Amino acid sequence: MPEPARDRFDVIPHAQGRVGAHRAENPGMRGWFVVLWAAVATAVLIAGGIFAAMLAMGKIGFDQGAPVPVPTHTATSAPPALDTAYAVFVLNATGVDGLAAVTRDTIVNAGFPGGAVATGDAAAEDFPTSTVYYQTEADKSAAQALANLIGATKIALSDRYGDDVVAGQKQLTVVLGMDLAKNAPSTEPTPADTSGDGATG
Prior knowledge:
Number of strands: 5
Helix content: 25-40%
Low-confidence stretches: 189-201
Structural class: alpha/beta
Number of helices: 3
Strand content: 5-15%
Shape: rod-shaped
Mean pLDDT: 80
Distance between the termini: 193 Å
C-alpha cells in the first residue's frame, strides 16, 4: 500500500517544558500557609486548655438559670413604746420587802400617773420569773414595753387580773419574781447621827 503524502498536520512541534496548567507551586506561599495554620492550632489548644481548667475549678458553669445569691440585711424592729394610758398593778411574789415599791417608782417615773399604779403582795413568795400579764391581744405591745422598762423577761395573756386599780380602765399586771429580787432596796439599818446629841461640857 503506498504511503500517503505528509501535510502540515503531520508536523508536531516539540514543546519546550510543560504546557498549560501543569505549573510548579510557589514554595514561599506554602511556607506561610503552614506557619499560619500552626499558629491558629496553637491558639485553639491554649484557649481550650484554659477553658477546661476553669470549668474544672468551678469558676465557670453552664447553668445560667441559677439565681445569684444576694446578701440581705435584716432590719431590726424598734422596741414598742410605753403606753401610759394603762393602769398598772404590781404584785410582789418574792417575799423581799420593798421590791414592789421600787418597781412602782420606776413605772411612775417613766410617765404613768401615780394614781393608776398600785402595789400589793402576791400569795406566793418564790415566783421564779417576773411576768407582765395582759388581758387581750391588743394589749400585748403595751405589756412588752412595760416588761422592757422594769426588766421582766416574760409576758403572758391572762384574764385573771383586771379592774384591780381603776375601775373600767385597761390594766397591766406585773408579778415580780425572784429574777428581779436583786433590785430590792437594802434593809440594813442606817447608823444613827450622834453629831448633835446636845451633850454639854
